[in-house]
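task queued by scheduler; priority normal; single chain, no ligands, no partner chains; default sampling; output format set to structure tokens
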Amino acid sequence: MLFTADAWPGLADGSITLTFRTWTKPQARAGGRYRVAGMLLEATAVAQVRAGAITKAEARRAGATDVASLLARMRVTDPEQLVWRVTLKHLGADDRAVRRADAALDADAIAAIVAKLDRMDRRASVAWTRQTLRLIARYPAVVSTELARHAGKERMVFKVDVRKLKELGLTESLEVGYRLSPRGEAVLRSLPASD
């Protein structure tokens, strides 16, 4: 789920606990977790409601001053239009950020991560995880197009691979390119040079 930057403080401090969306079909589900601006949010309820049934209190919980401004922000003019009402709960920091910062890995934790890398490599036609980690370590903050060329992959394929490593907390996205996280550096140090 996307939110504008002006909503981030309210999401973080718990004053924004609702969002309304004009989706044609639901883009969130109850129990789903969503990463927004370094935070982890959970959708606790998702339902369709009539735009005209939104209350002033709900508009404030969605970060608007009143119902009219909320509807204007969504470009809704018909009170009978159905919109999606998503109740949100702030769970804390983005779990990937927490994992990235954790470089104090014991042998068991390293082995578990390496086992996940091995599974990813086995599912692919060509092993890629270690090569990608080494490329990012060697070329931090280099545009993904250049890294993909070094890896011999299409840019979008390369970016999908990097996202998989990011889920494990091993990489961080920069304004341009990527870098290894402290966790990623610890894992890479543990790998044999020939691996």
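post-processing summary
- The two ends are 38 Å apart (CA to CA).
- Residues 107-123 form the longest helix (17 residues).
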